Amino acid sequence: MSDAPTDRNRLDAEESPYLRQHADNPVNWQPWDEAALAAARERDVPVFLSVGYSACHWCHVMEEESFEDPEVAEVLNEQFVPVKVDREERPDLDSVYQTICQQVSGRGGWPLSAWLTPEGKPFYVGTYFPTEPRRGMPGFGDLLERIADSWSDPEDRREMERRAEQWTDAVRGELEETPDPGDPPGEALLGAADALVRGADREHGGFTASGPKFPHPGRIHLLLRAFDRTGRDAYRDVATGTLDAMAAGGMYDHLGGGFHRYATDRTWTVPHFEKMLYDNAEIPRAYLAAYRLTGWERYAGVVRETFAFVERELTHPDGGFYSTLDARSRPPESRIDGDDGDGRGEGDEDPTPEEGAFYAWTSEEVDAAIDDDTDAALFEERYGVTPAGNFEGTTVLTETATVPELSKSFDTSESEVEERLDRARAEALAAREERPRPRRDEKVLAGWNGLMIAALAEGATVLDDDYLAPAEDALAFVREHLWDPDEERLSRRYKDGDVKGVGYLEDYAFLGRGALACYGATGDPDHLGFALDLARAVVEEFYDPGAGTLYFTPESGEDLVTRPQELRDQSTPSSVGVAVELLLALDPFLPAGNGDGSEGGDEGAGADPDGWPDFAGVAESVLGTHGSRVESRPTEHATLALAADDWAVGHLEVTVAADGVPAAWRDRLAERYLPALVLAPRPPTGDGLRDWLDRLGLDDPGPIWAGREARDGDGDPTLYVCRSFTCSPPQTGIDEALEWADRLAPEAGSGER
Question: Best label site of 529, 597, 700, 716, fewest CB within 10 Å?
């Protein structure tokens, strides 16, 4: 009996929930590894690469339609080496082949289906394929047969290999190559904000005039910062209009809190029902910023409810956060009793999972869940529950009536309406908890945890200190399980004791942002030290001084057909943009003159003989390389545009010399919208600071700390406010310090450094 790896499905040895979901398929799925690729070379057959993730609705559909079909499996097993990849574990592979799919077809998504030469070069790509031809898409089985026949024909194969070379060159040009360096963009913020206003849907919110609609938190931050800079109402109105629409629509879970992945329509009514950790980190950060700018309590409530959802449903018992909740689940019993025409009769013990089944409602289900008839009627009118529904005979809850409107139509006070709605929501949530739940992907990913840690730390600064504990617990969890302190290297994924994968740029950058936010919220230098270590690794592993860029994959990692960069914001912020923001924010903590004279030396551009890279020099180099891209297409590169603005106008540095930041000062800082703020607590005395420097491995303090002791050495808490090398005198009052922050704020149109 042959023991070749492709003779069996090998996914039962994987910890990824997505891969394990396919472990029982008759397809002899292989993980992406050298054994699978070597088998393709030895058998001289193409690789069929299928990329998805556990919460992906259409991934499940294609599995049920095709990958569970023995006849399809036979063709895949005999004519190809079928490889299954979890895009959350291998975002580098997803980036490479998703890019060529978008170049060739004009669209992408999951499941991603790619046919590759044994060397990994793509020659045919697509996403979901139905079993039979439909809407211009070929049937999957027929497509497999045609590709296999062409591979066996010498003339057709030469054409396929020629195409593979062309496509590989194209994807290298898109992902790996860089332009000649120029100057960092001096004014990207307002140009980006103007473009966003021009393209905004002013009626329904969002940045397109049709569906689908995505949250785009980076664009919200751009608009809020532009409004703060200029006072132009249109910037604020587009940002808040989008936030209001998301919070009122079906993308937001009005019972359990948290956000689904995106809305499928213009009015934000029907979502794609996955709940992703990264959305429930980045979207609350946008609401926190808007809350600080406007003071609108509704935004703070959305953040609190979203954090409560994350704590309840996505938190590992030992700290850290799980990745996703599935879009699908088995429908509740109320929808499967009797024959409803779809073949599911009474007593069907294993109904097919359906998208949105956990979250949508019928009128009968509302009446059964809520005891009081008036409460139920208020709930239905508030959230648009009707017999016809708005989603396949059920209703996705959306805010369709305001409290004042309900007060008038029910002839009662607004306070009573709110009291009844609170009671009705609690009863509906309790009833929903009894339904079959969506599956949870319990991978703990370093980068996504970094996003959530940063959001919680910011929430602790703005709303409630209680959010610090889960932020610090998660940071400790990731450091314990995914960080190698000896090698100063990060792994990607933890699952049930199993650690897998090298860390990518997003892991280091996102986690560094989270660690820095924890330092600002707590004043704990250990968090700052971890952020510095991660930033140093960013430069050592991802910065290429010759290309002037930060690559997504580490220099010591696997060689793919191209080495990708992640410059655009996609479902997560640009890892290059976040890395540049992090390097610029951390540079003032390093001794003045750090990195001087090291450019082009034996240790490479950006290196320092004492082990600390020139963070600001690397950031400036990257912004210079990609400046023209940011200026020409700023809305696609929102995070990179924000980083460019940080470089152009400087961070607002607020140094607090004290044994702890006074609570009254924290409250005043929480009330103010202060973009690009770096809060830098330090001990009040030089001796205390020396202890910190020893712990951080720094010989001398950086400019953000140097000479900034407590006033007169008497221990009174003291603030120093600086921006772009201009600083206030020492201040012992928070109001006076905030006046200096206003005085040092960049003017509209500023951008020359």
Answer: 597
